[in-house]
What we know:
Elements: H1 2-37, H2 53-58, E1 66-70, E2 79-83, H3 88-107, H4 117-124, H5 129-135, H6 140-146, H7 149-159, H8 172-196, H9 199-205, E3 213-215, E4 221-223, H10 225-238, E5 244-253, E6 257-266, E7 272-282, E8 285-295, H11 299-306
Parallel strand pairs: 3-8
Antiparallel strand pairs: 1-2, 3-4, 5-6, 6-7, 7-8
Amino acid sequence: MEIAYSLSIAFQSLQPFIIATIIAFLSLIVAVRSFFKRPHKSNAPGPSTSPNKDEIKGAAPSSSCNCSCSSNGNSDSAAVVCDCGGSPAEEDMVTANNSNAVAERQNGVSMMEQLVPEITTHALSYLDYPSLCRLSMTNSLMRKAANDDNVWKALYRKDFTWEQDNVTPINGWKAYYAATRAIINVNTEFFNIIRDRSLPGMIRFWLNADYVKCVHESGEQFSGFNQVIFSWHLAFNLQQGVDFHVRDVRARVLTDVAWVTMKTYFDMDNGAYNMTNVYEFHHGRWYLVHHHSSMLLADGDEQHILNG
């Protein structure tokens, strides 16, 4: 009786352990069965799973392309063979693109850069000064084309004058164009000073030398820096809100001397004047050393003078 009771107590104490052992054993059995039921890849040849002809006809066209590249040992002459199954037009387009790519690889330049120099020069002649400067900063070949002397000569004719067609600038037409533009900008500043009636501006504009001269439209001549500035002081006090327009500006620039001729129309009713400004280059800038203004003769007056 005592033995049965002891076994009952022992069984009750081991009951949780026995239940856990049974659950673990059952889980192991399930795992083993699942492992053996998993499909395994086989290296043996099996039936083909490729789609049939009907499936191929109904399938959407694939974007993959069976392309191959062949070379004769030179990377520049590699040929691309493409069999994409496209239309003849698409195949021609692919062939043309391949031909252009091979040509560019062989020459190292684009189609634009392979133009005949005369055509390039003619095309660049339609550009203005800022556009031509920006183009020269793109690459070495475009810089060479944009710096061509004929291009800048054509631009000089278009922006300034044809009168100096036989001139051969020492540093080329590009440098001559830049120097001409600089002196014309300086000459524009001269008329801005007159329009503002700024005596301090006129003092800075003239070279402080004893050989400078100024001839006003009245015909009176002033020599020396002090006398020239005094003449402008009188002119600014007499003039009241002068309106004028400058036309036919022509410039000739040498190393350190330049002169500018122009026609100036005051109030558009009081006649026109021929003006000439002569500049000298000192200490990194241009200074005015001679100014001459005279009445522009009418056609009848000019004919009267010629006839004596």
